[in-house]
Amino acid sequence: MKVIIVEDELAASDNLTYLLTKIDPNIEIVTVLDTVKAAVDFFSNPFEGILVFMDIHLADGISFEIFDQVTINIPIIFTTAYDQYALKAFKVNSIDYLLKPIDQEELSDALDRFNAQNQKKGMDEQQMQSLLHLIQTKPNTYKQTFLVGIGDQLLPIKTADIAYFFIDTGVVKAVTVQERSYVLDIKLEEVEEALDPTLFYRANRQFIVRREAIVTIKLHFNSKLLVEVHPPCSERIVVSKAKASDFKSWVGR
Fold first, then answer.
1. What is the per-residue burial (b if ≥16 Cβ within 10 Å, else e) of 155-182?
2. 142-157 pLDDT, tens per residue?
């Protein structure tokens, strides 16, 4: 089975690749595309592949913009943390919808449904209703507490108390609203996967910020954004031009 992945987060695409090949070693990843532009360029030409895994939020926009420019005639399984996009996903060639962080068993079930449908195009009304029910009833298992090591003790820090996460000289730190900083023994990509995306946003490779911690958003050169947070951060938090529109939409949601 030849598969195409459309995903802008390297950790997420690596994890999906790992899970797919673990489920079926015969699965071949044809390519990984990380932007709307790259996807449009790829699908505009003849390509190999019988199934697409597609994230909804990409580095330069929303993946639904791809379908305004090209037609994708093979089935799609959407992978995203934003289930409010479900109904729109139904309107394209979607056969399933997986919420992040992706569970291996649910991924396997999605592949089984793909194989059972024998690559049929589109979805009928019954499938759409079943998928909608699945999305509405699937619980969100976001991390509520982080354990941080202090000396020979483990201290539980509530996610609700954390204003932002950032990388400081290779070390991931969490800063609380009480202006305390804690070292986390995990990667920032793992932190991102564990957080509720309606509350936290990956501003750039270095920072994940909580919406309530944002004080001001300033226009920066080259259409970038400069974000100021509380507690104040000694490092500048810059949102790229590619992510600026999506970030503003998230803040104003």
1. eebebeebbbbbbeeeebbbbbeeeeeb
2. 888 999 988 888 899 9
What tens digit of pLDDT does each residue of 208-235 get?
999 999 999 999 988 899 999 999 998 9
| Tokens 């995903």 -> residue | 7
User: Tokens at residue 18, please?
Assistant: 């790992």
Distance of alpha carbon 177 from its chain centroid, rounded?
A: 25
- The pair of structure tokens assigned to 144 is 């509520």
CA-wise closest residue to 203 among 240, 231, 170: 240
Cβ of 209: how many Cβ atoms within 10 Å? 25
Task: Answer whether 142's CB lies under 8 Å from 194's CB.
Answer: yes
Is the pTM of the predicted complex or chain greater than 0.85? Answer: no
Long-range contacts of 195-200 (CB under 8 A, 24+ apart): 195/142, 195/143, 195/159, 196/140, 196/142, 197/81, 197/82, 197/100, 198/82, 198/253, 200/165
Kindly report the number of other CB atoms within 10 A of residue 139's CB atom. 6
Token pair, residue 29, equals 């990843």
